[in-house]
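Please check this:
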Amino acid sequence: MMNSSRLTNEGKTFLRGCINYTLSDDIFHHSTLARSCLTIIILINVLSCPLIVVLNALVMVAVKMKSRLRARKSNILLAALASTDIMIGLLVQPVFIAKLLIVLLAPTSQESGKICLLLTITKAGISCLSKSSVLHIALLSGERLLAIRHPFTHSSTVTTSRLLLASGSAWLVTIILQIIITFSKMIFIFISNVLIGLAIIFITFCHVELFRETRRLEQRISAHQVSQMERKRFQEGKKAFKLTVITVTLLILSHLPFLVCRLVLFLYASKLPTEYVRIIGDSSISAVLFNSLLNPVIYSIRMKQFRGAFRELLCGIVNKVGSWCGEN
């Protein structure tokens, strides 16, 4: 009965943002399954962390240095989205890895405070950066809708400075929300839910309209009712639209395990062993973090210009390193 009560409290504590690591039974020290799963989770995060930083940095540098990439306005927003992903690899993931290592190497009650603090920082970082990602995807969806509906006025209406201003505003909103939580958690939850709800509604609306516009233009093209220039613009817009759909889908899939985890722990925490509660929680967080690695990989797979820019940048780095090594 006491064990059931402790597990229930642990599941509820996880939902509040910090797992109750009493660890008096040294569960990760004695459980081979728990230690094996935790080791795998650590390896995945340690290997993906530098890749997240390098690949997203390549996206940002490629868009900055290559004028042909900046010519397509959606790429500027992809670079802005990469800025949120690179923060995952630079700030959030190292803290999460440190928390996992403490659990694996020093599973004692004296370390519970450190583990709790690191987990709280990890979830705060994920909360902030996930909101920023959703807002940037909303901007990306809106930009794509304008490009499809108004192809000839799009370039003059949607300028680089306006896109950067919109991206900065998205970052400012998420930072203000994290400041609000220090004063009132209820206000934070209300504003956050409203903001994310409106963003999701807007993204859904944009994608429905984009699908309808795409179908309509495809029918016009098949009937030979558009010029060659319009046909080319449409094909470019369609590729960018597909990339946006893939990005949104990956974001949803990466966050789905975390949402399911919260629901499972809320309903069945008292029936699950403590080690399962922690493994499920850490695995779901890793899925959210892993999304930051998938985005630049998808860009390179789907877009020839990004692949070419990545090759040029990497070759340049290799040549400079080779020259430096030769001089020394």
Summary: The chain is about 85% helix and 0% strand. The CA atoms of residues 15 and 262 lie 6 Å apart.
